[in-house]
Amino acid sequence: MSHPSPEALVYRFRKQRGVNLGAWFVLEKWITNAPFRNASPPAQSDLDVARGHDARAILEAHYDTWVTESDWAWISDRGLNTVRIPIGYYHLCGIDVSVISNTDFADFADVFSGVWDRLIQAIETAHHFGLGVLLDLHAAPGKQNNDAHAGTSNAAKFWTDRRNRVHTVHVLRTLVTHLNAHSPRLVNIVGIELLNEPIADVELMNWYSGAIKDLAALDPTLPIYISDSWRTEQYAEYIKSNPHPALLVLDHHLYRCFTSADIKTPASDHARSLMDENAHTPRMFARVAKMLDAAGAGFVVGEWSGALNPGSLTGSLDEIKNYVEAQLRLYEANCSGYFFWTYKKAGPHRDQGWSLRDAVYSGVFPTRVGLVASRNAVGDRERQNRARDTLKNKAFGEHKAYWSKYPGKYQHARFAEGFTLGWDDAYTFFASNPLYRAVSELGFVGAWARTKTTDHGSSFWEFQHGFRQGADAARSHFSEYYCSK
């Protein structure tokens, strides 16, 4: 496996501001009902659609119209730079029919065999618009959770039948092998998510370890995303204790509209609890983000929305807007990425809680996210270097002065080295996509810093501290001199 290109590395390590393309390949009836018109009872899942009349024609008409070129352009124009695409294992049967052998979808190869070419086309089109792609295994053999979006309307048997877990690794290996066959064309693949929202099980960590090892044998550079099963700190500790040569990313999903406690909580309190640094969720986010950053890993929110239960709402549009704003602030401050669920919904009525398009048009979601360059930073290296050296000297002096109060053996020069590299690499990301007004920012800072030196010994912490301070200083400088206010 060849080393990723500089372009591929920018896609993988930049801050991912994204949206889920829900109900495109893995259907969800509440998002769009049309593909279910001939589905077999209970008409809730992909398998129900496949069992109905004219399934292939219905599905392919949906695949070819749900996301089109104008949608890619709209997403890019919002400043978003990545999409998360949910897929089912049966969507890979066009490249290897064995992925559906002895499964619920064994008889439906003809229905789904055309998906793979559409998926490759989607990735290539996303690249044309400067968008990265996170491929998420939303539906695994046997179902990893009890929801219909895991592929069938049957009960979940992922954890009760070991053959499903073994077969899922085969599916993931098939996916990675065939993506690599298209390399380096698909430079915008930012990673593979092993399972979406698996039921928490004592075997999950062991299964993760085996799957990660198997995929690393195929491509040791491929970023791997894993769900935390809403046990965020437990799985952050797991990643910290299981270092991996490639980027490992923990995916947390945040919703506040399902539990009885959520329903009783006013929207204003939901927003306040996410903005108060001393509240539970912000404190947990800060701890996890710091732990994973130091471990050379990452933390993202793979699903979130503006949706609140009617019991939380008074009818004011501002309460949803404030709730969305509170989440964006939390994620920008602590996460290397976040992905709104979902891009759009079908139907005559707007849903500003769940549909990003409706949220933007209703004014509850910003018209743009991220930095927007108003001047070109390329070719202005002299100004940048002067600022870098001035700020480095100041930070270096403060670093030495602080640690002089605590006697010990230090290698302060590593701090200065890290600061310079952090600044320079941050500017490399800023300048990486001049064709797009949305600016790429170094997002997985701790993971990227780890790739910049082979010396991860006792003094690495000083290098890492300097690197982060340099990257942060560069972002502030870039924002001040080159971005719209």
UniProtKB/TrEMBL annotation:
SUPFAM superfamilies: (Trans)glycosidases
Any single Pfam family the record assigns to this protein: Cellulase
GO terms for biological process, alphabetical: glucan catabolic process
Domain of life: Eukaryota
Annotated Glycoside hydrolase family domain residues: 68-346
A single GO molecular function term of this UniProt record: glucan endo-1,6-beta-glucosidase activity
Keyword entries, A-Z: Glycosidase, Hydrolase
GO CC list: cell surface; extracellular region
Record PANTHER family: GLUCAN 1,3-BETA-GLUCOSIDASE 3, GLUCAN ENDO-1,6-BETA-GLUCOSIDASE B
Family: Belongs to the glycosyl hydrolase 5 (cellulase A) family.
Protein known as: Glycoside hydrolase superfamily
Source organism of the structure: Mycena metata
